[in-house]
Write a structure and sequence with these properties.
alpha+beta, Beta-lactamase, five-stranded antiparallel beta sheet, two-stranded antiparallel ribbon, 8 helices, 9 strands
């Protein structure tokens, strides 16, 4: 009996030591990697299994770019689950609503109605800026601000419904690596949402088409639910990574790189190092393709789907 007890204690302490070494290795490798970069970089990590977290410039403010669409979606679903918002409501899309940049609505004819459910889907899966403005107008900026404050996101500020305003304009949206890591962990843990709503949000984040960042630092086939953000000199990526050893949140922000390629490669390396230290598996580096997005598969849905480029026909959900 004594031998069994001693064996169990030895195994327990060895496992605890290994976990501590993994944590130390992660901190050291990420700190060393980000310290060699002249531009601004921020990283936040949360182990969803143990709750342990780590960050480099985690509470520092960064321009949000399209990552700001995540708290917009979260606010909409939070109010929906509270009975204060109707995601089935249909809103009119007009020619004057069109915005440049990502998405498909800019190519559609105005005068059509779309459900807020479908607009949120476009906002996340295709990062559609026009759909985003329609969703923000429906939820309202004051309601989004109230939600952000209620969950303790101290550095997050959503004041631009287009997500296109850039620094040095003071009206650009702001957030931090830690704020977005916390937002993703709340979605994963269904804090403030029903299980059904959380599942839908995670599915949309997994379907999103821009896969140049965190995705390229993990083995093919790994389930990743993330959202990217990109403007001039701004490149961000944050999401949940699901592995056999457990799940974790990784939030990476960059600002001020002269070449976007350098920022992408850094995000790839941070993602790869995090995955290796967390799982103990080696990840083969993949070349960065010229095209920022991978092949995108249409998500199935009960309300129709966006068509491929070949057919240019869309359902008006």
């Amino acid at each position: 009996m004594l031998r069994k007890t001693l064996s169990f204690l030895i195994i327990f302490f060895l496992a605890a030591s290994a976990q501590a070494l993994n944590r130390a290795g992660l901190e050291q490798r990420l700190s060393r990697l980000t310290a060699t970069v002249e531009s601004r970089v921020g990283v936040a990590f949360i182990d969803l299994k143990s709750g342990w977290s780590f960050s480099v410039n985690g509470s520092r403010e960064f321009p949000a770019a399209s990552i700001g669409k995540v708290p917009v979606m979260a606010a909409a679903y939070h109010y929906y689950d509270c009975g204060a918002f109707d995601i089935e409501k249909r809103v009119m899309f007009r020619e004057s609503d069109k915005l440049e940049g990502a998405g498909v609505l800019r190519w559609m004819k105005g005068g059509r109605e779309y459900s807020l459910w479908n607009l949120m889907r476009l906002m996340i899966t295709l990062s559609d800026n026009t759909a985003t403005r329609l969703v923000v107008n429906a939820v309202t900026l004051p309601s989004i601000e109230a939600y952000v404050k209620s969950i303790g996101l101290k550095q997050t500020r959503i004041v631009d419904p287009t997500m296109l305003v850039e620094p040095p304009d003071p009206n650009n949206n702001l957030t931090s690596p830690w704020d977005m890591a916390k937002q993703f962990s709340l979605i994963h843990n269904c804090r403030g949402f029903s299980k059904k709503s959380a599942k839908q949000m995670i599915a949309w984040l997994n379907y999103q088409r821009y896969r140049w960042g965190i995705w390229r630092g993990v083995p093919p086939g790994t389930y990743v639910a993330n959202k990217t953000g990109q403007l001039e000199g701004i490149l961000n990526d944050a999401g949940i990574i699901y592995t056999k050893k457990g799940n974790y949140v990784l939030s990476i922000f960059t600002y001020g790189f002269k070449k976007q390629r350098d920022a992408r490669l850094l995000i790839n390396d941070i993602s790869r190092i995090t995955y290796e230290e967390y799982t103990g598996e080696k990840v083969i580096k993949r070349k960065l393709s010229r095209r920022p997005s991978a092949k995108w598969k249409r998500p199935s849905g009960r309300r129709g789907s966006v068509s491929s480029r070949k057919s240019r026909t869309y359902r008006r959900r």
